[in-house]
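Internal tracking record. Fields below are filled automatically when a chain is submitted to the structure queue. Please do not edit lines marked as system-generated. If the sequence contains nonstandard residues, flag them in the REMARKS field before resubmitting.
Queue: standard
Priority: normal
Entity type: single polypeptide chain
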Amino acid sequence: MRKNKNQITFTALLAIALAVFFFLQQYSKANTPAGEGLRVWFFDVGQGDGIFFRTAEGVDVLIDGGPGSSVIEKLAKVLPAWDKQIDYVFLTHPHADHLEGLIEVLQRYEVSNFIESGFVAKTAGYERLEKEAMSGGEKKIIAKTGDRFDFGSDVTAEVFWPEPGILSSATDTNDSSIVMKLSYGEIDFLLTGDATETVEKGLLDDDLNSEFLKVAHHGSRYASTTAFLQKASPLVSFISSGKGNTYGHPAPEALQRLITAGSRVLRTDLSGTIEVEVGRDGRWKIVCEKTCK
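SYSTEM-GENERATED OUTPUT FOLLOWS
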């Protein structure tokens, strides 16, 4: 009789624990501070890219994962410990400084949708990532020009690149980068992956105008052309680069073009992780881990 009572007690406690877990998980998804509309983080992942955003309804989206696994630590700071679900994961293009962190993300989190450009890289890292994506049950989507993602809460993303056919002719993996405009109401973020000058030229007929720009290729001298910046006209530009990196990113030439375009420039190597909070009324503010100067 005592054994049966113990079994009943354990079962009841387990049921309560599971109920609390699922309640907390849904609570973290559905509840955000009053007036909050969209939060976007430009993670300091070193010499690479890692962007995360959460809508007012708790839809979570990760764009690239940087090199190594530091993105896991960054996610842990913005997601509750019990929240192990990410709704969308994007890989802009298959270079190690964008994909390595995603391998562990797919291992640790339940990912509903995995989106990539379709460019196939013959590297061990990319093969590991694809293996994880295939084994985890995620819905795999190949992004292309004209695709539109609706994340709810008035948050959408429109894909500007890659164009059909570019994958078969691209000689530079960066030319396959997913470029998209993330929009919340009247506020836009232009996210460029490692888009090259060639890609930027191909985008000049698109509606690039945006309040915020994620600068292409970590501030390489071969991107952020004058013509592109004139069309985008960003108020604030974010550069994701590693402190003291061997590539010299961001390049002085790119920085000067951004300044000439009238854009404020913030860098993860100087500011750490950078967060943009956009309110439901369209007002926004920027919070930096270190300094926003």
